[in-house]
């Protein structure tokens, strides 16, 4: 059985211009806005070496 992960919720304050850009980017890639933000964060964490590139790979790609 696959390991179940638990998501945490939090409030994110973001300016309207940035949010508009993320929403458009998400639509271009057929993701929800939330999914796009998670994707961006995941890619940044992998690039910085803060999480393994093997970690969570199937969930975001």
Radius of gyration: 13 Å
Biggest sheet architecture = none
State the low-pLDDT regions, or none.
none
DSSP helix fraction: 40-55%
Number of strands: 0
- Specify the number of helices: 3
Give the overall average pLDDT: 88
N-to-C series of helices and strands? HHH
Q: What are the salient characteristics of this protein?
A:
mainly alpha, 52% helix, 61 residues, globular, 3 helices, single chain
3D architecture notes:
With 61 residues, the protein is an all-alpha fold. The protein has a domain at 17-51. Helix content is 52%, strand content 0%. The chain contains 3 helices and no strands. The chain is globular and about 40 Å long.
Topology:
Layout: H1 16-28, H2 33-47, H3 57-60
Helix pairs in contact: 1-2
Question: What's a concise summary of this model?
Answer:
Helices cover 52% and strands 0% of the residues. By secondary structure, the protein is mostly helical.
């Amino acid at each position: 059985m696959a390991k179940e992960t638990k998501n945490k919720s939090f409030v994110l304050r973001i300016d309207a211009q940035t949010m508009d850009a993320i929403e458009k980017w998400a639509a271009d890639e057929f993701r929800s806005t939330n999914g796009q933000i998670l994707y961006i964060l995941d890619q940044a964490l992998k690039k910085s070496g803060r999480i393994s590139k093997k970690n969570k790979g199937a969930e975001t790609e």
